[in-house]
Amino acid sequence: MILLTSREAEELDFKVMNKWKIKEETLMETAGSKAVQIIERNINLKNKSAAVLCGSGNNGGDGYVAARYLKNLCVDVVILENGHMEKQGQTSKHYRQIAEEMNIPFVYINNEKELKEQLFNKDILIDALIGSGLKKTLNNEKIKLIEVINEYKGTVISLDIPSGLSGTDGQMKPVCVNADYTIAMGTLKRGHVLYPGVEYCGKTIVADIGYPYIETEKYPVKIFTETEAEKTVPKRNRITHKGKNGHIGIYAGSYGMEGASLLAASGALYAGAGKISLNVTEKVSRSVKGKIKEVMVTALEDGEYFTQKSIEAALEKAMNYKTIVLGCGIGRNEETQKFVKEILTRYDGKIIADADALYAIADQHINLSECKAKLILTPHVGEFSKLTGKDKKEIERNRIDEAIRYAKENKVTVVLKGFPTVTADENGNAFVNTTGNAGMASGGSGDVLSGIIAVMNAQIENTLYDTALAVYMHGKSGDILLKEKGIGYTASELAQTVPYVRKMSENKK
Ligand SMILES: NC(=O)C1=CN([C@@H]2O[C@H](COP(=O)(O)OP(=O)(O)OC[C@H]3O[C@@H](n4cnc5c(N)ncnc54)[C@H](O)[C@@H]3O)[C@@H](O)[C@H]2O)[C@@H](O)CC1
Ligand SMILES: [K+]
């Protein structure tokens, strides 16, 4: 499902009206009527009273249409208006007139006190004040109205997007309606899924208003939905064998951080790897050997961490693997970083570079475009800041575009972890993930993800989809655990839950 900025949403409306000749009237009629269908499915409207707050833009136009359908359902409706109504477009005016002719009462709201009076005793407020046409920051009058809405105890349903919320960056300008439901018209906007916007939308439901699919699918940023997961999940046929399901090579762990290597291996194991080889140093191997029976452990060199001494052995072993995980818990010694550099520049398969490997890339100034390997980098915001030299806040403000920019510039796939995780590829396409929860912010969770990414990339053949699927599965495992156990579930449990998620997606195929 596509995810748009407000500007893209405006551009899409323009294309749909001018290229596809679907009239604005049709779009607005569909938007308002679909909104009421959705409301009816979610709320009992019997004997209810509702106020529809309309602004002067097309969001208000959707509101007039919704008011008509609510009235048809015998809801006691009043239309409240605020804004420069004289600037209203023809289509909104047209639907306003119909509502007037139906004898729906209209009240112009001059200030917050009047709004408060009108909302008293109303069960429902439909917020059609401002949609994706929000410009800059709200004026004082609108701020005060929104504050009244946020004190109101009834059910608030925002049309398209909560008024005051930016569809582009998910920021409040500087306040926004705190909705119980948001009915997104035609498509999701970034503001619906980015933080803090997502916290103000309540339950977000997309109303299909008839945008032609071939026009919408061209947009490069999408949400990785359950449907995508079902389509992407690798299907295994009966006559398969372990050699077909991907031999995963993991180069991870150092003395004191042995667990990271085991967690990456568990991620790969439970995601369904054919074979897993864990490459470590002698000292690490003593504590990891035998911990996971299915994993083959090799000590590449003596000592506590990787150095250039084992580079030839490491590269020789790498010839056997379908994908490689590099970096979890390997430490940041200069010699280890040189080991990472050699692998990245000489190996020509697919590498999932995580954690300390990302530090090596930054500290050793590794030029990614000179790497032979096809790279998937999995930074969290701190590691991404190290890679890009950008401030963490700046990255967070624009995590989707930052991930895309880096992926394109360096010709790599990036998984920018956090809320929400963004998987971007070198062609400028990206998937935003909406599974996962705060319980996953614990040590080892990233190591598990690296293992899952390695397996999906070994079993399917489209790096962006494979990687986004792995991110989806990892988050979904967390969601299952949050529901069943609550915060405090472990990274090992995250890995162990992956087969259930895989099964859920497979069964629906
Ligand atoms: N063809 C279309 O254009 C369609 C539009 N649709 C609806 O129309 C909306 C977009 O319509 P518009 O582009 O007319 O814009 P909006 O109606 O979202 O917003 C414009 C209104 O908000 C006011 N406003 C904007 N920023 C403000 C600020 N900082 N302080 C105070 N007032 C501010 C403007 O003065 C204007 O009255 C969508 O969100 C959706 O609900 C849907 O009906 C689908 C079709
Ligand atoms: K709105």
From TrEMBL:
The keyword Protein biosynthesis does not apply. Residues 225-505 form the YjeF C-terminal domain. AMP binds at K417, G418, F419, P420, T421, G446. GO terms for molecular function: ADP-dependent NAD(P)H-hydrate dehydratase activity; ATP binding; kinase activity; metal ion binding; NAD(P)HX epimerase activity. Its cofactor is Mg(2+); K(+). (6S)-NADPHX binds at residues 58-62, 131-137, 160, 260, 329, 380, 447. PROSITE patterns: YJEF_C_2, YJEF_C_3, YJEF_N. Its EC number is 4.2.1.136, 5.1.99.6. K(+) binds at N59, D127, S163. Keywords: ATP-binding, Isomerase, Kinase, Lyase, Metal-binding, Multifunctional enzyme, NAD, NADP, Nucleotide-binding, Potassium, Transferase. It catalyses: (6S)-NADHX + ADP = AMP + phosphate + NADH + H(+); (6R)-NADHX = (6S)-NADHX; (6S)-NADPHX + ADP = AMP + phosphate + NADPH + H(+); (6R)-NADPHX = (6S)-NADPHX. Binds 1 potassium ion per subunit. Residues 6-217 form the YjeF N-terminal domain. GO terms for biological process: metabolite repair; nicotinamide nucleotide metabolic process. The keyword Transcription regulation does not apply. HAMAP family: NADHX_dehydratase, NADHX_epimerase. Catalyzes the epimerization of the S- and R-forms of NAD(P)HX, a damaged form of NAD(P)H that is a result of enzymatic or heat-dependent hydration. This is a prerequisite for the S-specific NAD(P)H-hydrate dehydratase to allow the repair of both epimers of NAD(P)HX. Catalyzes the dehydration of the S-form of NAD(P)HX at the expense of ADP, which is converted to AMP. Together with NAD(P)HX epimerase, which catalyzes the epimerization of the S- and R-forms, the enzyme allows the repair of both epimers of NAD(P)HX, a damaged form of NAD(P)H that is a result of enzymatic or heat-dependent hydration. Belongs to the NnrE/AIBP family. In the N-terminal section; belongs to the NnrE/AIBP family. Homotetramer. This is Bifunctional NAD(P)H-hydrate repair enzyme. It comes from Dialister micraerophilus DSM 19965.
